[in-house]
Amino acid sequence: MNLQRVLSAGSAALALVLISAGCAPSADDASTTPTATTTATTTATASVAASPATPSAPATSTAATTTVPHTRATADRSMAAGTPSPSIAPQRQDSGQAAAGTALAVLETLPVKGRAPKTGYDRDQFGPAWADVDRNGCDTRNDMLARDLAGERFKPGTRDCVVLSGVLDDPYTATEIHFLRGQDTSNDVQIDHVVALSDAWQKGAQQLSADERIRFANDPLNLLAVDGPANAQKSDSDAASWLPPNRSFRCDYVARQIAVKAEYELWVTSAEQDAMTRVLTGCPDQALPTAQTAATAYPVITRSTQSPAPAQAPIRTRAPELTPKKAQTPAPRRTYTPAPPTTAAATVYFKNCTGARAAGAAPVRLGDPGYARHLDRDGDGVGCE
d(Cα 202, Cα 198) in Å, to the nearest integer? Predict the structure, then answer.
């Protein structure tokens, strides 16, 4: 008993020493963990009574017992402070924002400016018509005909270059067109610059280098084989003033224009941007065409047929002749003398396309006054286009 009193007195004295040294728990900690402190004191007393160890042993046991609950409480408070309330949901992105990679998203990145003057524009600013830029031995026009036509036939001896015939599912009019190369028929299918050359000139192409403009004029991404009259109707219009009559193709058409303008860093006008946005609102997930997708023709569901291929006449068997036929004298062949050219056609002459445009005659089509082969370099029947 006397030993126990001595030890208890020693423990009390040790506690006073710890308090004076600042090692005792604070009032806040003591108020939050009263049970732990009482338990620690009891544990220390029992430990000393059971074993006559040095006074430092129970002090160490007391500190360890009181620190662990305090540390857990502090960690719990810090986690609670850093964790958002379950009732606060994260903000969602604006639902009107276009998805990345779509034509609508890329349209939002194109600069919007006014149309620059057409001063200085000439077809020659974009290089010779239908140059062989890929060095495959074939001009761009025939490359595009071979890409977009089905069942094409080539001129012998041209290494499958010059297209003689084929079937085009025209994306602009949803018409099946049977193409036949010739002076009077080649114009039925024309190669359209999706972004017209003069439109590009007024929206940034003036700043392109000569080589970049040649690449622009012969880029398969910017070229489509289409119905000739529809292409003539479009002329150099942008999306604000002309869209394909085939409504099911308008999303692809506008997306292709956006891809071309993004590729060559051209801008759009405000009216053009609005027109493109209206079209793409009906197809917000319309993907942007790429050089890879431009290597193949668009699948088009046609609704009509133009210039159908002539049907083969059925083979008839001749009945045996019972009586000899009388010899027939062939009728004399009628000769045709073409009428002399009109005075206007005979006197009108344009040295080059610059003169034709200055006279307001461009484009000059086959049969128009002033038409000449030196104005129609690609031989499609339309000069100074």
Answer: 6
* Cα(193)–Cα(222) distance, integer angstroms: 6
Compute, in degrees rounded to 10, the torsion defined by CA atoms 299, 300, 301, 305.
-130
Mention every residue, 6+ apart, whose C-beta is less than 8 A from residue 213.
125, 126, 127, 205
**What are the angstrom distances between the C-alpha of 249 and each of 26, 160, 235?**
78, 30, 18
Work out whether strand 382-383 and strand 223-227 pair parallel, antiparallel, or are unpaired. Answer: unpaired
What beta strand segments (E) does the chain contain? 150-154, 163-170, 175-180, 189-193, 223-227, 304-306, 364-365, 382-383
Handedness of CA 172, 233, 107, 96 (dihedral sign): negative
φ/ψ (deg, to 5) at 250? -65, -35
Name every residue whose Cβ is closer than 8 Å to that of residue 244 and which is 6 or more positions away in sequence.
171, 172, 173, 230, 250, 253
Q: What would the pLDDT profile of 60-112 be if each residue is shown by its tens digit?
A: 433 333 333 333 333 333 333 333 333 333 333 455 678 888 999 999 999 99
Structure tokens at 347: 């006197």
Which amino acid type is present at position 78?
Answer: S
CB 57 within 8 A of CB 47: yes
Q: Is 377 exposed, middle or buried (0-12, 13-18, 19+ CB in 10 A)?
A: middle
- Residue 374: Cβ within 10 Å count: 10
pLDDT, tens only, 139-184: 999 999 999 999 999 999 999 999 999 999 999 999 999 999 999 9
